[in-house]
C-alpha cells in the first residue's frame, strides 16, 4: 500500500515536498489555510520582489542623466515627471501572486495531490485533525506528517498594526496612495529591502535600526556599501535606535525610541522578524520538541524528535529562505521514501538581499575567516574598475572570494552590485563542486561583462608555483 503523507502548510516547504512524494507514488494530502504557495507566494517573497522590480526601474531612471538622457525641456523644467501609481503597482503585485498560487495548484493537481482547506493540528504523531472554515472537522490518518507551517510577522504589544498606516510587510500591498513619509522599523533583510524599494520609488524614508549598521547579519563591507548608497540617496538611517512604541493620531504615525527620541511620518512598516506558526498545533503532545522561540527542532534530514514527523521551512528557523524550505521539504520526502539523500548543507546556500545595490552571498563568510572558524584567503575587488560597470554608470559594489589557502578551493563569496543575484551563480557553482580559484579564473567571461570581475578576483588568488 502507498505511504500516506500529510503535509501541513502549502508554502515552498510543503508543496515542493508534495511533488517529490507524489512522484514517488505516495498518497499525498496538503492541508493549508491561506492558499497554495504559502506566505512565500502570497505575502512575502513574490510580492516584495514584484514591488522591487518597479522600484528598480525607477532607480535606473534616476541614473539616466549620467548616461546622457535628458529629462528636462528647453527651459530646464522637468519635461517628463515619473511618478509611481502605487494602486497600479500593488494591483499587479497581487495579480501576479494569485496567478503563481493558481499555477502551483494546477501542478499539484496534475501530480494527484489532494488539497484540504483548513487549519491542521497533530492528534498524535500519525493523525492530523483539520478545522475547516465552515466549522466542520476532518481527520486524516498518516504514515508520515510534514510540518511546513511557516512563520508570521512579529509585532509588539506597544506596536500593533492597524492595517492602514501601521503595517506589517503583509499589509503594504493594500496601499493605494503613496506614503508622504515612511518609517521602516527593523534593518534586517526585510526592513532593508522595503526601505530601499520605497526610497527608489521616490518616497522619503527613515530606517530605524537597532544595531550599529543595517543588515547586521550580512558581510560588513556589503552592508557598509549599502548604507552608504542609501544615505547618499537621501534615506534617514537612525542607527543604534530601538523602537519602544508606534502610535497613530489621525494621519500622523509616531515611532518612539527607547532613548526617548521620536520620529514622525505618514506610515510605518514593522519589520521586527518572524514568529513560527507552531502554537496550538498539538506538537509537544505528539512528541515534537520545540526550540527557543517555538521553532521545531530538526536534524539535517528534516526529522523532528517524533517518529514519522518531519518539518521543513520557516517553522524550523533554519535559514529562513524559500529555497531552503523547498530543499528541506524535498530532503524529508527522499529520506522518508528511502531515496538517496544528502543532508542539508547550509554552506552551499546562495542568498540575495534585493536592495539597490543587491547583496548576494554563498558559503563561508569573511566574518568566519576573521573569527578563525576557517583558514582562508579573502580577495575583494571593487566593481568600479570593471569596464562594463563604467559603461553602465555603476559606481558601487564589489566581488569578494573566499578560498582555502593550500588547495585554492573556493569556499565562499559575496557580490554587491546590480543583479548580484545572477552574478553569484558561478561562485555558488564553484562552492558546490569544490572548484579552485584557478578553475574559476580559467573559464572565459564575455568582454565587457560584470562577471569579468568574478574571474579577475579569482585570478588575484592565483599563486605562482615556480619550479626549483
Ligand atoms: C518580506 C519577505 C521577503 C522574502 N523574500 C525572500 C526571497 O526573495 N527569497 C527567499 O528565498 N526567501 C524570501 N523570504 C523568506 C521566504 O518567504 C520564507 O523562507 C518561505 O516563505 C518559507 O516557506 P515555508 O514553506 O516554510 O512557509 P510559508 O511560505 O510561510 O507557508 C506556510 C503556509 O502554511 C500555512 N499554515 C500555517 N499554519 C497552518 C496550519 N496549522 N494548518 C494549515 N496551514 C497552515 C500558512 O498559512 C502558509 O500558507 C522572504 C520573507 C519575507 C518576510
Ligand atoms: N531576499 C530574501 O531572501 C529575504 C527577504 C526578506 C527576509 N528574508 C529572510 O527572512 C528572515 C527574517 O528576516 P527579517 O529581516 O524579517 O528578520 P530579522 O530577525 O533578520 O530582522 C529583524 C530586525 O529587526 C530588529 N528589531 C527587532 N525589534 C526592534 C525594535 N524594537 N526596534 C528596532 N529594531 C528592532 C532586529 O534587531 C533585527 O535586526 C531572514 O532569515 C531572511 O533571510 C529573506
Automatic annotation (TrEMBL):
Cofactor list: FAD
Protein's UniProt keywords contain Coiled coil: no
Keywords: FAD, Flavoprotein, NAD, Nucleotide-binding, Oxidoreductase
Pfam hit, one: Pyr_redox_2
Residues bound to NAD(+): 186-193, 273
TM spans (from-to): none
Binding note for cofactor: Binds 1 FAD per subunit.
GO molecular function annotation: flavin adenine dinucleotide binding; NAD(P)H dehydrogenase (quinone) activity
Pyridine nucleotide-disulphide oxidoreductase dimerisation domain mapped to chain residues: 350-457
Superkingdom of the organism of origin: Bacteria
Every FAD/NAD(P)-binding domain range: 4-329
Span of the signal peptide: none
Binding site for FAD: 49, 120, 314
Family according to the record: Belongs to the class-I pyridine nucleotide-disulfide oxidoreductase family.
The protein's name: NAD(P)H-quinone dehydrogenase
